């Protein structure tokens, strides 16, 4: 049985007042069987951890640096995130890859830093619209997987998120067949690299315009173990039904 995970990526949205959404989400968080993770902006991590603990909500960061410390003005290390009490960190989000020119090698280093700090990295992959239209999606996913995942992936230390860039924040969702094709492919790639026993346990999340009204369909895919949600994670009234749909899947 793989863990089911509903993760919310708040991106650069929300100040301390937004943490009230955690309290509102609390009543729909299942007691067991489904992990709910909220990734607020870094300045809110400390307070979010305090609030979320009793609510059975895990807290993650949205990025970490590839080095453990040093003269990197404005950056935060995996160790600092762990020190806040967070348990997860997103690495390799397409917004970081695109706008900050992060390479697969950078993402791999960040995942290793996450492990060293005791965090679970949520490693993101996904193709652009050009790639999708050129028909080379699976080639790109294979390259991202082999370059971004370190060799030390185990059954329990990593989460992988597939987020087609053209579906992020656009309201455009791939067909269920497209989602199944990529998730099955990722599982097969993980199996050939890490072995079936490990690969079968790694949660694969889908991300990109997940909403309450499409969540159940997306979660019906065998190799979709949850979602990484942007816009619809900001309000408990939007995210709660997604969590409930996952728990029921
Ligand atoms: P949306 O759910 O807003 O499309 O964002 C997805 C995402 O980028 C989550 O990391």
Provide an overview of this structure.
The chain is an alpha/beta fold. It has a single domain (4-248), classed as Aldolase class I (TIM Barrel), CATH 3.20.20. It has helices at residues 20-25, 45-52, 78-83, 94-99, 104-116, 129-134, 137-148, 176-194, 196-199, 212-219, 236-248, and strands at 4-9, 34-39, 57-61, 88-91, 120-125, 159-162, 204-207, 226-229. The chain starts with a strand and ends with a helix. 1,3-dihydroxyacetonephosphate is lined by residues 9, 93, 163, 168-169, 207-210, 228-232.
Question: Which helices and strands occur, and which strands form pairs?
Answer:
Layout: E1 4-9, H1 20-25, E2 34-39, H2 45-52, E3 57-61, H3 78-83, E4 88-91, H4 94-99, H5 104-116, E5 120-125, H6 129-134, H7 137-148, E6 159-162, H8 176-194, H9 196-199, E7 204-207, H10 212-219, E8 226-229, H11 236-248
Parallel strand pairs: 1-2, 1-8, 2-3, 3-4, 4-5, 5-6, 6-7, 7-8
Bound molecules: 1,3-dihydroxyacetonephosphate (13P).
């Amino acid at each position: 049985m793989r863990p089911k995970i509903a993760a919310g990526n708040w991106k650069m949205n929300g100040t301390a007042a937004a943490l009230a959404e955690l309290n509102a989400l609390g009543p729909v968080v299942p007691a067991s069987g489904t992990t709910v993770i909220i990734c607020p902006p870094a300045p809110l991590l400390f307070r979010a951890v305090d609030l979320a603990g009793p609510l059975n909500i895990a807290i993650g960061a949205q990025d970490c640096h590839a080095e453990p410390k040093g003269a990197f003005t404005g950056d935060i290390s995996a160790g600092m995130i762990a020190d806040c009490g967070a348990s997860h960190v997103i690495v390799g989000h397409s917004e970081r890859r695109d706008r900050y020119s992060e390479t697969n090698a950078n993402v791999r280093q960040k995942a290793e830093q996450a492990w060293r700090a005791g965090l679970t990295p949520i490693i993101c992959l996904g193709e652009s619209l050009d790639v999708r239209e050129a028909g080379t999606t699976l080639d790109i996913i294979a390259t991202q997987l082999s370059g971004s995942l370190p060799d030390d992936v185990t059954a329990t230390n990593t989460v992988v998120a597939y987020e087609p860039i053209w579906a992020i924040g656009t309201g455009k969702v791939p067909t269920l067949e497209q989602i199944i094709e990529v998730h099955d492919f990722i599982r097969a790639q993980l199996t050939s690299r890490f072995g079936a026993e490990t690969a079968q346990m790694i949660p694969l999340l889908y991300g990109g315009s997940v909403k309450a009204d499409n969540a159940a369909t997306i979660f019906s895919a065998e190799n979709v173990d949850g979602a990484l949600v942007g816009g619809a994670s900001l309000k408990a009234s939007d995210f709660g039904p997604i969590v409930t749909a996952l728990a029921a899947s």
